[in-house]
Here is the input.
Amino acid sequence: MKQMDAVQKRLLQEVADLHDIPEGAYNLRANGESVGRATTANIDIQSKPEGSGIDIRIKSGTKNESVHIPVVLSESGLKETVYNDFYIGDDCDVLIVAGCGIDNCGSQDSEHDGIHRFFVGKNSKIRYVEKHYGSGDGSGKRILDPKTEVYQEEGSTVEMEMVQIKGVDSTHRTTLAELGKDAKLIIRERLMTHGEQNAESVYKVELKGDGSSADVVSRSVARDTSFQKLDLCIIGDAACTGHTECDSIIMDSGRILAVPSLEANNIDAALVHEAAIGKIAGEQLIKLMTLGLTEAEAEEQIINGFLK
Amino acid sequence: MLELKNISFSADSDGKNAEIIRDLTLTVGDNRFVVITGPNGGGKSTLAKIIAGIVTPTSGQMLLNGEDITSKSITERARMGVGFAFQQPVRFKGLTVHDLMRIAAGKDITAADACEYLSEVGLCAKDYIDREVNASLSGGELKRIEIATVLARDVKLALFDEPEAGIDLWSFNNLIRIFEKMRNTDKKRTIIVISHQERILNIADEIIVLADGQVTKQGTKDEILPEIIGGKFAVGTCCKLGKEE
Here is the structure.
């Protein structure tokens, strides 16, 4: 396998909490090419014939295994679109860690668009963690436009944790999900934007099977002059329960547009949405200041807790 | 020692200038347990907030152990050893009880350390340490955590604004025990509690009655308590209301 340089290693640590090569199955992609791969008896990773991504196949009954597929970009001006398909068998219990770190010190825009599709078999349990991180002081923009599609069969559970806290200039995230009978989807999104960043996050969850449920919670902070658009939509086509929550803090001249929407197409669909946007409550700052923090320290603690 | 000299505070209310604290002068000695009581709207909470730096007085001067703190910020006063337990505890989305105790202690305390303070206020720490300080906690639980944040700090002057409000009888007994313990420890610490509760008044070294923004009575428990109980604050409320109309 090729050696990674210090910048790539740092990016890898940010997005996947990895210092070096992970255990279990993995595929590392750096600057547009695969730099390392490992498969296990139960998890197979193959490059797509056209070279545009990978297929990950997880055998039925695979439990307590993990797959890491982080991507790092440290070259300025690189633009790539990658298709990763996950075929997960029945009765699995697997952790999938993805994520992308971009370091752009140059003047050209760098962009990574990951298109992830998950086909989750019956009664399988998947935990998916995706972190996005950008660094570098070049004038070139760091752009991430991920698209995630999830197809859940009967009785399956998918938990998704999406985090983008730092350094990504522009992101347009789309997440689509279709749930069968008794399937369960839990999404936790954490988003923070700085400077002039622009982030758009669109969720469309379709509850197609009886007994299916979705809980989509987004917490975000918009600082400086950044802008966020959060579009959370749940469609209930069966006897199902859905909940969306969009909770945002605005600071400085940050702006947020929250567009939660619900569509019930079945008399037994029970859907709820909550949305709140506001600045940090003055009394929260005061409370922490009476414990000895300065206003700036209090702000930091409140934001850290909120995005944890 | 805390000295308040000619403190006044007025605020605009419905276009009228309302005087909430009027030319108040007060000295609280070291290692005292002082209870401030008096009718609602008398200025008690405002006075506590003025001492903590949350409310800036219109005029007057404040000294803490001889140092002028009048223009000091909330943070500076907190770092000088002023602690304040809010009447209505603040909720935080995302911050856990452990986070809050860590901030209060000013260092990275372990779960075991945090547990000590929480068990002081009658919470089984194991069940609470990782809970968020949000609406999922009851008013009484939040109130006890609020008190624990003051216990976790090494304060010289502790202010409690109606600590009994919103807590159940069992916790109330515990609260009395906490205050007794706080005053019996040998640390040089002054405790000021705003309360209407006879049992809290009963453990005071000193009672201050605040009405209409002024100290109307100040003295030892034995002097003041008999005057208050069965006195004009406890009876004749209807007549008083009648007069105001």
Notes: Chain B has ten helices and ten strands. Chain B has a mean pLDDT of 87.
